[in-house]
Each structure stands twice: as structure tokens, then as C-alpha cells.
Specification:
- Four copies of one chain form a homotetramer.
- Chain A is an alpha/beta fold.
- Chain A has helices spanning about 20-30, 60-75, 100-110, 130-135, 150-160, 180-185, 205-210, 245-270, and strands spanning about 5-15, 35-40, 45-55, 80-85, 90-95, 115, 120-125, 140, 165-170, 190-195, 215-225, 235-240, 275, 280-285.
- Chain A folds into two domains: about 5-85, ACT domain (Alpha-Beta Plaits, 2-Layer Sandwich); about 90-285, Formyl transferase, N-terminal domain (Rossmann fold, 3-Layer(aba) Sandwich), CATH 3.40.50.170.
- In chain A, strands 5, 6, 7, 8, 9, 10, 11 and 12 form an eight-stranded mixed β-sheet that branches. In chain A, strands 2-3-1-4 form a four-stranded antiparallel β-sheet, covered by helices on one side.
- In chain A, helix 3 runs parallel beside helix 8.
- The interface between A and C is medium-sized, with 15 and 15 residues.
Chain lengths: ~280, ~280, ~280, ~280
């Protein structure tokens, strides 16, 4: 098991002395930095920090650390959070019929490759139930047909609420979440789109790609906003295709990219490496 | 020096016996195949072939080969051409002020890495003249300001004509060719666009990319049609960027992708590996 | 379901008229080519072909096709085989404790992404039994400790024999097969090695990689010969690492490359795209 | 032109309060951090920092900054240096007959894509003289035949000394520098090796790669030590090859990787992003 750490994530207006103030505070408390990332956006003059502190270097727990840090945070107008690696994030997975992203995340979960809890899987179909069952994870089936969408989304929202989710992952969920849910969980809903955005927004991107004759196809992991496929991008990647590839080939090759990009994006989010800044992200890798 | 070859490029409706007919013809003439590529497009039932024949395996020259092949070509309704590797293609290069693509192609030319002739370089600026001069290649400067575009394009067209160009490469030329020139040299004008098309069509794609917050930027080599940035794609590639990259960084990283993608696309075109099929390409690599 | 095809795989000394002879034979039988790949190795003057024939274009079955093709094969001294896409290959999977490659292949199997049968999984540990059980696939546990290796390999050989395996995949099996088994199943045993061979042969390649300070790590899918990690390479790939990556990070990142490379290599093998030529492979992609 | 910055590069044993001490010092002087990178090596408990300070945020010049920082550096047993972006590094280029790496670096130099001075080019051949001449850069030809190697290296050493070189780049120089020169310029000599090290050490790596049948070839940029091809690696990359690629194809494709990898490695070195740690490097990108 990895040693316990606290992660202190900060964004605020830049000022001379900012790094000094934060690192001096941490040093005065005895905190040992095991990782530290800084970024200054010259356009907005905004500053972003991620500091990882060895828990056993401090004589007290995370709540007291928060309390002691608070005055400094206020002084510098920081948006900030402190997370504890001993408290894994709770990730609700939404899926439809396709198994590739869900299977991949379940593998990473059960092999302890990525640290998170899964309160439940929600799907508008029953196809993946048996596989999820084997993992001893709750599976909720709530249909999403044309005539019961409102009910579907109400159920989804209730299930998310009840599970105390920190993160909601749309693992090829194929439904468009209503704006209220997007707003309520802003910065917490992660989607995988099966194209290299902003190319091929919307439905059937592989068909669009085949039509256009591109030589690479891709996938995009992004935060969900009410603006379809337009939220802040966390991670992207591509794979080479050729004239030999039919649409089923694109779908197949694309699946490998989708699951890889989603897993990388989610990992970075779970490790508090992704900071939102307007419609963009800072990703401290 | 590479041994002399003929390349027989064919596209036509598919039929049982097509490969047999062509290869039997070549075998009966004594032709040794050193490379052979075939592709059947199942949607259109169209067939594409590229065959490379060792010149010294035939007792006669390319003109007679063409004549002898003609009846077969007619019988199968082929679009076809035969090229001779001893006759390098004539490539006119159009550029503006930026040197990266032009320099890269001139390096590949002078080091014999790619086999082609350069009748001349045409530019709307004088910046690159001295460098082109060093290569003993003709440099034509014809300004392209708002008030003399018509004259500019007339000059360009005349220079292309006079140089007996087989290929026209827009090596970051930055001007939009009039539709008449696009039509006249259909399938012969190759452009490099500084984005992963169809994302970021038009002007300032790196600014668009920065604005959208993508995690990869790219470049696209395509045939020019009168429809801006929408012609058949020959080659594409991407490079990873991060929040650290300012727009000048994108421009710098992008230049490396642009020149690589253009060189690969042009090489494939020069080796008759690219066959157009509607708005798509078959690239026999 | 994909339409039924026959794949005719040939390697033989090159001669003028070879493609003509084969394609004329196929045409005379009415065979429609849906794919055709040819490669001539100029050094050895050896020729390699892969032709895919639509089954419904022939008035008879694969056995008669073989019989009819035989005389031509003899005339040209061909090594050849004809496979039928309706007869999936039987793939025995050998694993140890690590799940990533096995899980990945089982996903591709159960989602019909790759067409093959799995007669059984063999392991020297019991860790993966429950997961394999869920798939309704036989799981054989045969320990491989220092004092019972001979027995272990005898059991493995018997199980392979009894299962009529066409392919044996070492999905991170971690044992070195005895030379007799390697010889008996020459060209049929596929291994995934967790380095970019020939770098870091043998044990603990990720430790070796960390020690050397490389900036990329990789994986290699190859046929097994009695010469450790030296068999013909089918597929390789790499992933970027940095000074931030500890050995556990290398292991984790490496797993993703290992499973991808193994899946690509196996897919090409299953589709009869891989032809051995001495210690190298021709891979018709 | 980029704004003037100072870069403060530090490595030392780790201690709680290290970042605080350095950043507090810089803040107390008024220094604005525009970039900051930190890395703690958990195995050796060593700490590495790179801080970029806006020159105009300080009321004095780099010499005074060094003087004021000195006591802190001593207190923490730091190895450190301060560089000034207004003082470009002096890079001596050594080449042989091949032009690809040299041409690429000269392009990046003349287009201001990378900031450095070139006091001279040294070669054991005259082939590249005219091209270097066009750039108005001194070209020294000193033959390196079997019977005058000692003289050759004496001349090379003298030329390097006379040119006050900060960096020596072996741009496909093809000669093995004597250990004395390697030791004298430790951490300052950068080589590009045409393989993915540690695979294919020594001569003719592309022939070795073809012999082994690998599916990727690569290039490695590393610091030169007296141990051939074994110095700390700065950057590596690979490119995909196939059975179609002959050795000349490998050489051609390899050239593109070589020049890209060398340029990236050199850029990182010039920007003081590369810190040596034993036989490894930390590269702050």
C-alpha cells in the first residue's frame, strides 16, 4: 500500500511570494513535500499549485492542516482543497450496452491499479449486469426510452446523490445528461467522446471520420458541461487508420483509444492533477 | 542509384479475374514484380492496384508497355497510368515567408532522399530568395497584396505552366488559389494545413487550438480543391501539447509536424502511392 | 457475423509469373479476392502472398479448393496453407498470477472483437480461477515450483495436446518452456515480453530500464523458440516515461503496452497475417 | 524577443523546508517566478529544482543575485548554477559527411527557433563546408584518418577551447572522442546515437536492427562519457518500420528520428531543463 499523503491544490491570482508563503507555511508545520507542481498562466496572471505532503511528517491530521492553512488561503484569495490519499474517491459509473470502457475501469479497480471506490454502476440496459455482479458491485438498471427520459434522469440523479459520489464517469453512457445535473456536478462528471474533439462533435463520429477520409481517429476525455462535447478537455489521443479500415474497424480501433484515454483522464482526476481554468485544464503530470 | 522501375497504377470497377488479367499480362511480357498492392473498396466495388515492374525484366521501353497494356485497360474500363522512375516528377514549390517546410523539402531534394526536380520556387515575398539561390534553383517573386491578387495568380499560373509542373506544393504559401487553378491542376496540388483537419479549418488554427484547450495539435497534407481545407487527405499526424505551451510554443511544435507530414505526403505522391477515390485517398504504403 | 472467407497463405522462391499463376488459378475457379498482399524479399528472392477469397464465390468447399490448388503449389515449391474463417483457431492461454493480459484477451474474446476459441486456461497459480470460471472456460492449475517443473511441463504439454490447440499464448506466464515444447509447437507459441527487445532480455526488464534511465519503455510480442527472448518478433510498441516514474509506475504503464501489443500480435496471427521468414516476420497489415 | 529571465538550477540532499528556503529568498528579493519545477528522488533522497525568475522583477543583475544566493546554497550543500537567458550558450557542432542533423540544427538556429551561438563547425570532411559557409559560420576541416587520429583530436580540442564552447554537439560525427576530452567536458558533450539504446550499441545499428527483425527503430540523445553509448540519456524516440523497409529505408526513416531527438535533447539542455543524477537525467519539461 502507498504511504498516506495529503494533496494541497490551489489556484489564485499570482503575486510575488506566493510559492514562498505556501511552502514556508508547510515547512513550519514540518511537512515534507514529495511532489510539487506549479504553473503560472501569463495571460490571466493566475497561479496553480499542487503539493503532495507526506502525512507522517505532520503531527496532526488533515482537518487541523486545513484549519491552520485557512488564513493564508484567505489572504491570497485562493480556491483550494486538501485531499487525503487514505480517503479514496467515490466513482459512480454510467454505462449503456458497450462493455469496453466499463471492463477496463473495473479491471483497474479490482487490480488496485487505480485507487477509487465504486458505489454502483448505473445503466439504461441490463447487458452488463452479470459482469458487474461478479465484482460484487451494485448494478442499477433504469431504462431510458423516449417516453421515460425524465424518470430515467430523476432516478440517475437520486442514485448519484444516495451514493455520495465524488465523480461520475460516463463510460460510453450514450445519453445526454440534462443541464441541471451537469450544473449540479460541475467539474465532477467525466465523459469519453469517441472522436478527437473538436472534430466530429455529436453522433456517430466514426461514420463522420470515415466520410471525411481522415488518417487518424481519436478519443477525448472531458468534463461535462451543458454544452454538448464542448467541456474542458482532460486528455486526448489518436490512432492511425488507413483505407483498409472499414467503419467496424474504426469502431474496434477506436475502442482501444477510448478506454486508454478515459483511464488516463480519470487517473489524473483521481490524483487531483487536473485543475479547471475557464474552459481549459491544467494537468500536472 | 535505385534500379529503374515502371509503376502501373490502376483503378476500375472490380470483377473476378482482374488481378489475374493484369498479372498474367505482365508475366507474359516477362515483367518482374518488385512491389504489388491491391485494394478493393467493398462499398463502391471499386478496385485499386499499384504494381512496380523491374524495367530490365522487359525487352522494351515504357511507351511500348503502355501500348501493349492499352487493350486490357479498355476492356476493364480502367483509369490508369504508367510512370517511369527514371523520369523524376517536376515539383513547383510555392511559399510565403516561413522557411520550415521549404527548407525541409530542399534538404530532402539536395540529399537525394526524395527523387524529384524543382523547376522553380514561387513566393509572394523575397525572404527566402537567398536560401533558394544557394541551391541554384530559380526563385520567382510575385507580390500578392490586396490590390494585385489577380495579377499575382496570373503570374503563378503562367510560371507553373512554363515549368511543365507535375506537382505543385503549397509549402505554407498562405494564399487561397482561385478555383480555376484548383480545377486545372486537380489531384496535382498538395497543401499542408496546420491543423488536424477537419478541426480548425481556416485561419490561425493554432490560436483556435489554444482557445479550445486541446491536448494534441496536428497537421494535414491534402490535395487542394476549390473547397477550402476540404480536399482529399493524404497524410496527418499530431504532437502532444500541454498547458505549459503558449501559442508560440504551439507554432514551434506544429512546424515540426507540418514539415514531417508534408514530406511524407509528398513522398507517397511522388512514388505514385496515392490514389484518389471521390474525396478520399487510398495510400499504398 | 463476418462473411465466410478462405485465406490462402503462400511463401516460395520468386519467379516471373507467380502472382499471375496464383491469381489466374483463383479467377478460373471463380474466386473473388477481397484482400491480397504480396511481398518480395529482394535479399533472399523469396515471395510471400496472402489472398482472401470470398467463400460464396466458389461452387465448392475448402477441401476441394486445396486439392485443386495442390498441383500449382508443387510446381512452384510453395509452403502454403488454406484457412477457413468459419473455423476459429483454438487458443490455449497460459498465465501465472498477473491478470492484465489474460483479462484483456478474455474481454476481446467475449465481446467477439477477435474470433477464436479458448479450450482452456493453464496456470501455475490459482489466483485467476474465479475470473476465468465466470467466462465458463476450463481452468487448469498445475504448480511450477523448483521441485516439480518436469511434472508441470508434462502436464502443460498434455493439456495442450488434449485441447487440440492451434495457438499457445504465454500471457505473462513467467515460466521458460522446455526446448522440446518450443520445437514441437514452432511458430505456434506466442509470448509477450515486457521490454522493447533486444533491449533488456531476461528477468526484471523494468528494473533494468529504470537502472539505465531510458525515456521510453516497451513490449514485444514474438514467437517462442528455445533461444530465450530471441524468437521472431511479431509486434512491438513503446510508451514514454520520465524521471517521475518509479519502478511501480513503469510496471503499471508497461502493462498497458504489454496487453495492447499482445492483442495486436495475436490478432495478426489469428488472421494469418504473420509469415515467418528465418528469424523475421512478414506482417501483412 | 523573449523577455530576459534567470534560471536557477539546484540539486542537493532533500530536507524539510528546502523549497520554502529557496522561494522565500527569491520572494524577499522581489523575484517573480515564471516557471518552477521540483523533483524529489525518493531512493537517493535528493532534490532537484529549476526556477525561472523574471529579470525585470529584480533591482540588480545576475552577479549580485548569485552573491546573495550563495550563503543559502552553502547552508544546504547545493550544487547550483544561475544562467541568464540574455547570454546564449556557445555550441560547437562536430559533423562528418552526413548533413541531416547539422542541417536541422542550422535551420533552427537561423530561424531563431532555438537560442544559441555557433562559434564554429568542425568536421573530418569537407562535404558540408559550402552549406555552413552560406550561414557565415566558421568551418574547420581536420581529417581523421587511421594515421592522424591523435592530431585530429588535438586539433578538435584546441578548436573547442578557443571557441569557449559551453556545449559540444556530435551531430553524427562518427568518431569516438578520447576519454580525456569526454572527462574534460563532462555533461557538456551531447551525442545522437542512431538506435534506441541500450539496443544496438556500437556500429551499424540499422543493420543490427534489420538483422534482428524489430518493428520499431529509434534514436537516443545522450551525454557522452568515456563508456561508449552508455552515458546519461536525455531523449529518445522511435518510428515504426515493417518488412517492406530495406536497410536504406531504415537509414532514411531513422534520419528523421535522429534529427528530431537531437533537437529536442539539445533544446532541453540549452534551456537548463536537464539535470544529471548519476547515470540518469531529470528532464523538466
Amino acid at each position: 500500500m502507498s504511504p498516506q499523503n495529503y494533496r494541497l491544490i490551489i489556484s489564485c491570482p499570482d503575486r510575488v511570494g506566493l510559492v514562498a508563503a505556501v511552502s514556508s507555511f508547510l515547512a513550519s508545520e514540518g511537512g515534507l513535500l514529495t511532489e510539487a507542481n506549479y504553473f503560472r498562466d501569463p495571460e490571466s496572471n493566475w497561479f496553480f499549485m499542487r503539493q503532495v505532503i507526506a502525512a507522517d511528517s505532520l503531527p496532526y491530521g488533515p482537518e487541523e492542516l486545513k484549519q491552520r492553512f485557512s488564513p493564508l488561503a484567505e489572504q491570497f484569495n485562493m480556491e483550494w482543497q486538501l485531499t487525503d490519499t487514505n480517503v479514496p474517491k467515490r466513482v459512480v459509473l454510467l454505462a449503456s450496452k458497450q462493455a469496453h470502457c466499463l471492463s477496463d475501469l473495473l479491471y483497474r479497480w479490482r487490480s488496485d491499479e487505480m485507487a477509487f471506490d465504486i458505489p454502483c454502476v448505473i445503466s439504461n440496459h441490463n447487458d452488463l449486469r452479470s459482469y458487474v455482479d461478479w465484482h460484487n458491485i451494485d448494478y442499477h438498471h433504469t431504462p431510458a426510452d423516449a417516453d421515460n427520459k425524465t424518470e430515467h434522469f430523476a432516478t440517475v440523479e437520486k442514485l448519484i446523490e444516495d451514493s455520495n459520489a465524488d465523480v461520475i464517469v460516463l463510460a460510453r453512457y450514450m445519453q445526454i445528461l440534462p443541464p441541471e445535473i451537469c450544473a449540479k456536478y460541475s467539474g465532477k462528471i467525466i465523459n469519453i467522446h469517441h472522436s478527437f474533439l473538436p472534430a466530429f462533435v455529436g453522433a456517430k463520429p466514426y461514420h463522420q471520420a470515415a466520410e471525411r477520409g481522415v488518417k487518424l481517429i481519436g478519443a477525448t476525455c472531458h468534463y461535462v458541461t451543458s454544452d454538448l462535447d464542448a467541456g474542458p478537455i482532460i486528455e486526448q489521443d489518436v490512432v492511425r487508420i488507413s483505407h483498409h479500415d472499414s467503419i467496424p474497424d474504426l469502431v474496434r480501433k477506436g475502442k482501444d483509444v477510448e478506454k486508454t484515454v478515459l483511464a488516463r483522464g480519470l487517473r489524473n482526476h483521481l490524483e487531483d492533477r487536473v485543475l479547471m481554468h475557464g474552459n481549459k485544464t491544467i494537468v500536472f503530470e
